[in-house]
Amino acid sequence: MADFQITSKPLILYGGINPDFIHAKQTEEFLAGRSLLQPGLVVEAASVLSLELHPDSQPQDASPQYRSSLAQALLYKAVLSILGKAVSPALAGAGSLITRPVSSGKQFFEENVEMLPVGKPVPKVESLPQVSGEALFMNDAPALPGELHGVFIQSGVGRAGIKAIDTSKAVEAEGVVVVVTAADIPGINSFIAANDVHPEEVFASVEVKYAGQPLGLVVATSHDAARAAASLVVVEYENQQVPVLTIQQAQAEGWVYPAQQEPLTQGDIEEGFAASTHIITGEFDLGGQHHMTLEPISARVEPTEDGYDVLDTTIWPTECQATVAQVLGVDASSVNVSVRRIGGSFGGKISRSHVVSSAAAVAAWKTHRPVKVSLDLKTHMTLVGGREPYYSKYKVGTDAEGKVLAIEEELTCDSGCVGNDVASGIGAAFMSSVYYCPNWLVRPMYAITNTASNTFTRAPGIVESLATMEVIMDHIAAVLGKDPLQVREINLADAGALRPGFTPVVRNVFKEDILPRLRVTADFDKRRAEVAVYNKANRWRKRGVALVPFCFNIGFDVTFRFGGLVNIYSHDGTVAITHGGVDMGQGINTKVSQIAAYILGVPLETVRVKATCTTSNANSSHQGATICSDILCLGVKKACETLAGRIAEFKATLPDVGAGVSWPELLKLCVSGDVDISERFWTQQGKYPANYDVYGGACVEVELDVLTGTFLIHRVDVIEDCGQSMSPLVDVGQVEGGLVMGLGLHTTEEIKFDPTTGQKLTAGTWSYKPLSALDIPVDLRVTLLPNSSNESGVLRAKAVGEPPLCLSYGVVMALRQAITAARSLAGESGWFDISTPLTVEKIQQLCLVDSSQFVTTQE
Question: In Å, how far from its chain's centre is CA 732?
Fold first, then answer.
C-alpha cells in the first residue's frame, strides 16, 4: 500500500540473544496498525525492542551491547527493505545485504628466459600428487603391526598446583594399554633441547601453567578408545588462582620483562621531542592467531633394533631427534627422524610439534610398540600456542607539516607461559619500514601469561611493528587534518637514510618504483575520489581505500645452517636431492629442482627431491624464516656448481673433449674414471651473501555495512618486489596466501578465553574464524615488480614467504576510513584507537550506531 500501513500484527523473533528465542511481543503490538512511513516510528520501535531483548553475557559470545544494537539495527534494515524506493537513495541501500560479485584474480609477472627452467612459471613439482590425493603425509603412513594410539590428558584450569591424577578408570577402559604421566619419563621431562631456552614439560608434574597443558597420555588400541578413556581421568587441583590471560593483566601482576634484545636507539630522542611541533601518543592491541595448518600436528614413534624411528610433522628434525633422545635418556644416534612433507607450518611446527613426538616416544618406550599421536583440531588449538598477541604504546613528535622527528615505542608481546619464542625484539628492528625518522627509542618487551606458550608465526613481531608504523602515520594525519598518503610520502626514506635496526637504505624501491606504479595500475586517485562521492551519497554504507607499504629486511646474518646432498645417477643421468629443509607448501622443492636443472643442464622432470632425515641431513637448523629458502637454494646451487665443474673438467680429458658423448654416457665414464658425481653441501654462515631489502605495496578498498559491521573487501592490488623470481607461480601463490592469512589475523580470527578457568573458548571453526572463500578480496591483482633484480640473492631472486603478509594491515587502514566517515555523521571527528582483530562487532560499535538515528526520511 502507498502508506505502508501495517494491517495485522507482525511476527518478530530473534535467536542468538540468550539461550531462548526472543519473541518481541511488545514491539509487535507497538507496530500493529501503524504506517512504516510514520516519522520516528523505527526509533520508538527500537526503544521498545531494547526492553525485550535481555541479552546474556558469556565470554565466548559477542558482547550484550553489540547483540542488542544489532537486533535493533536488523529491525531497521527490515523496515528499509520493505519501504524500498519509498525512502531516499541514501537510506535505501541499508535495506539489503552487501552483494558480493563473483571472485576474480589476475597475476602479472615477467618470465626470466635467461636461466630456464629457473624463472619459468611452472607448477610446484609435487602439485599433481597433492591435488589428486596421492601425496603421502604423516597420517597417511600405513599402520604398523601392533601400532597403538595416544590421546592427551589435558588440564582443565590455567593456574593451579596438581594434587593428584587418578587414572584408575581410564586404565580399566576397553582397549587401553597404558596411561603415561610425568613419572614414567625415563629421561628429562622437557620437549625443548636447544640451548639458551627455558625447559617446557612434556607432561606437567607439579603445577599447571595454562588450561589445556598436557598431564599425560592415554595409549590404546584405537584413537576412539584412547579418547574415551582420557575423559575418565580425574585431576585434583590445589591452590587454584585466577589465570593471567592478557598483557594488561600481566603488567598488573609484574610479569612483563625486557626482551633479550637491547632497546633500539638512534639519534637523541629527547632532542627530537624538544624540536617537535606536535607530540602524539597512542596505544592499541593486536591479537594472536592460530596457525591453522591443513595438517594437524602428528607423530609416530617406532621402537627398532637399534633405537627409534620417528615420523613427525616438524620443520626441525634435528631438534625432534634431540628431544626424543632427551626424554628417553638415549643417544641421539639411536633416533632417526624422517619428514617427507608437511601440510603447512607458518611457524607452528618448529618446536610445538615436539611435545607430541616426545609424548609418543615415552609411550613407545613404555609399551615397546609403535605409538601414533595425531591431534584433532580442538586438541591442537588448546595444547599449543600460536602467534603472540601484542600491545603497542607509542609517542611521536612531528614538525608542523607532519614530518616525524622522534619515535618512542614500547612493543610488548604475550609469550604465553614460557618466554622461549619472544619476537618483539625481531619486530623492533623492522619498525622503520619504508620511513625515515632521525631519533628512535624502541623497547621490546614480553609478558608471561597463563596461556599455552606462544611461538613464531609468519612474520613474527614484524607484522605488528609495521602495523604500528602505519597507525602512527594515520594518527599524524588525523591530528594535523592531512591526507594519510601525503603524510606517508613526506616521511619516506631516501637512499642513504639511517635505520635503527639495519644498515642504511640502499634504494627505497617503494618510493621510487612501487608507489608510482601502484597509483596508476590501481587507479588509486580516481577510486579515492569515487569513495568520497559514495560516502556522501550513502548514510549506512561507507567505503574506504588505503595504500599500504612495507620494507622487510632479509638477513643472512642469522644462525641458520643446513646440510644436504645432490646425487647424479650414472644409470640414466637423473638427479636426486635431499636437503635439511622441509617443503610445507612454500615450494622449496620446486625452486631447488629448478636450480639443479639449470646448473646441471638437465630437464626439470629428471630432478627429484627426497625426504629429509636426520641421517642424511644431520644437524640442520629449523626452517622457520623466509631466509631459509634462500639458504637452501644457495646450498643446492653451490653443490650443483661443484658437480658441474667436476664433470666438465673430466669431460675435457676425453677424446675430442667429449664431443658427441651423451649425458648418461658421460656419467658412466665419470664413475669408471673415479669421478664422484655426488656432492654434499653445508651452508656455512660466514659465506652467505649480504643482507637485502624486500619492498611491497598494496591498495585496499572495502565497503562497510554500518548497521551490522559486516564488510566486503572489494579489491586489493599488490605489487611485490621478488627480484628476478626463480619460480613466478610459486611466488604469486606465496603473495596471495600471505596476504589472506594476514587479512584473517586483522579482522576475523579472534581468540577468547574463559576468564575464570583460562580455557580457550575458540577451539574450533565454529567459534574461530579464518577467512573463507567468501571473505577474501573479490578482486585480487598481484604483480611481481618488473625490471627488478637482487645482487645479494640466489640467482638474483628475493625471498617471498613472509613479507607480503605485512600488506594485510591495509584492510584496517581502509576500514578506518569507512568507520571515520560513519562516525562523522554521529558527531565524532577525532582520532580513535583500533585494536585488532577488527571484528564486525568492533566495527559496528566504533561506528557509534544508535537507534535514535533510525530515520526513514533523510533529513
Answer: 17
